[in-house]
Give the backbone structure.
Amino acid sequence: MTENLALNPLQIGIFLVLTLAIGALTWWRVSAMKKTTGADDESEYFLAGRSLGWILVAGSITLTNLSTDQLVGMNGNQMLLLAWWELAAVAGLVILAFVFLPIYYKNNCRTTTELLGQRYNDKNIRALIALLFLAGNVIVFLPVMLYTGSLFLKSMFGVDWPILAFAIPLALIGSAYAIFGGLRAVAVSDAISGVGVLGVAVLVVVLALKAIDFDLSGIPAERLTLIGDNDSPIPWHTLLTGMIFIQIFYWSTNQTITQRAMAAKSLKEAQKGVIAAAGIRLLIVPAIVVIPGIVAFKLFGDVGDAAYGQIVAAVLPPWLSGAFAAMIAAAVLTSFNSVLNSSTTLYVLDIHETYFDSTPNVGRMNMIITLVFVGSSIALVPIYQSAESIINLVQQLFGLLSMPILSAFIVGLVFRNVGAGAAMTGVLSGTALYAIFTFAWTPLHYIHLMLITLVCSISIALIFNRVVLGNREEFVGLPR
């Protein structure tokens, strides 16, 4: 690659104009919406005044999840098999809509962890789970979003600049949304950029297939199958064990996702938005996260996470690739902002207000915490450059938190008379167990190990509750 000679002025110009236009349109729309809500600062920053319609809920959930970690990471595997993450996500969204959302709305929750505080009648478990979520967001999701977004822009523009040359501007611009606009700005920018991202991503699929005359011959069979063998990223039998629980955790208990649905005008409006997001994920997303990578394998070989940027640069004309880069940048920004906003929400509501100051200056706290998280995420970006597969690494690392956290929700929701100390013991034991599985002894595929971790976390919580706390748990099933 060359440095400046590869830059196309038309491509860059369209990228800058559309990026500024999305920001301006978002700011205008958010300003107009704020005038009609009269919400207090806390509700406005963290729940958009609880005024989002189903279209904004669907758009925000879709774009919060669909960013470069999916487009770059999944296409980087260059095989059809990765579509299972998106197909299984449909089940996770349906469970969110009809199982968890009614519970959150019935209990008037602002965070998913607030439900735990209510079920266990204990503030400490709420704070512990919030801290674990924050660790995952700051250590994994935020830097990965910056890294994959930067890698995409670097590959598409064809420049040999350091990753941080892209990551730092993305982080600083993105933090402005979270600081000045809160969740409403994130949701609106999601909806605006979502139409462009999905539209051009589908076009990339069509043009990529056209570039090889819709002929997939010559591509190894293992890259075109949905039935993974034992050495593949998703062996077929993992679909029967840990996969569904990964989806339940991510879509139903993860604050970054559920916060959009909690900000809806009503439970019914939230459910409509979640089901619409599930429809988008079923009909559109699987194709756009695997087919370009497969085509890139035929055209460029095994290029890993650079595949998506290279295929976009190859099949789109400069003016359209510039437009798509702007949409992708917007998707990175909104996903990054979403995690920032949910992280600030967790810190302020679950930790700061509980232990330090019950009536903080929300705007000031939002700015301080956002900047701290942004600085940390930028510092961690270079660590992810050596990852063989970014999407698989993310899933493995977040396994340290996901199943232990899910165990606290399951125990709290389906059992009665379980102490918070028992649930926290189960969570921490599960984290330690999965750390052993990840870094010391890996007897099975990590998705199988997630189910084992979940079962062990629940079992340890119930045993500790009976043996140490002297409580006898009662199975009651999910609350209605």
Notes: Residues 419 and 465 are 6 Å apart (CA to CA). The first helix runs from residue 9 to 34. The chain is about 75% helix and 0% strand. Residues 1-5 have pLDDT under 50 and may be disordered.
